[in-house]
Fold:
Amino acid sequence: MTKYAITNARVLDGKGTFFKNGTVLMDDGRIVDVGENLDIPAGVDVIDAKDKVVTPGLIDVHTHLGVAEAGLGQEGSDFNETSSSMTPEIRALDGINPTEMGFQDARESGVTTVQIMPGSANVIGGEMVVVKTVGNIVDEMVISSPSGMKAATGENPKRFHGGKGRMPNTRMGVAAQLRSKLIEAQNYVDGVGDKGRNLGLENLAKVLNKEIPLRVHAHRADDIQTVLRIKEEFDIDLTIEHCTEGHQIAEYVAKFNVPVSVGPTMSTRSKVELADKGWHTIKALLDAGVACSITTDHPVVGIEYLVTSAIHAIESGGITEEQALRAITYDAAKHIGVEDRVGSLEAGKDADVVVWSGNPFELNSKVENVFIDGEKVIGE
Structure:
């Protein structure tokens, strides 16, 4: 494996520290050192990044890469198992095509880590997984599996299942189904009732035991409140996905210490619960002290627009560049529970590094080099 030293760059570490004339040393897939005036070991491939910017690899915490394949229609649609509204037994891992072109789009735009999950048609959608964006064997790309259990509130499960004449038809029905299934899982854990093995309840037991969080699709403020109510009832770890109307109740959300992913704000107002969508949401949540990440929800918005979304959050939403970078690097890594490996440029972490032609938060800046696990995957 080639050893690399990126030198003479403005280095942003993802956690708020920057080096004006910095160096990043990589060896054996890991970051060896980051700083200024570092000694360059012999036998290292040196990349002079004068007038360029270096950041950690970007992270999108909420995607359907590889399970919703671009341009294939139904043949490439493997993210919603709509045969039932309750499918905790399924895994996104088993539906990912790692050769899907979205992974290349991710790499070319500096995105090196993604969380991939089932869609939001079902009240409980199944397990999700965190992977690197390079490789052709999914199992070799994984860095966290399972990384959470998908659930959804609001219009999607009502439309997909209520429209077929079965529960849930209402928001009350969505909440009731979710609560009932968690109670069923509690009984399973406690050995109450049928002693036979049940894959779905085994997966939900991981949520109840706080091995993984429940990650819940919730746009409207009332749905967000329902999610937080269920968190308290079952004493589970939880993240709120989308949080479109989170700005309306930001101080309330902050009381629960739950991470939030915001987006896909670049999308259209395609349904009623997106009526108050806007770049103001993330600023209101951050100002209230809520930990936030930015997501494209690929393919709702193409993953290549993750940094573009961050730029809009700065220019239209009013957040700082440091907050925007954290929302797609270190805070994103924390959101999906992999901050020990990725999300910042620190010695010992995976060598996922991006070299930009200029400030990444200017639209005319380009990705020049991308390293994943210390291997150059983009650039000469």
Notes: Residues 61 and 73 are 24 Å apart (CA to CA). The domain at 58-342 is CATH 3.20.20.140 (TIM Barrel).
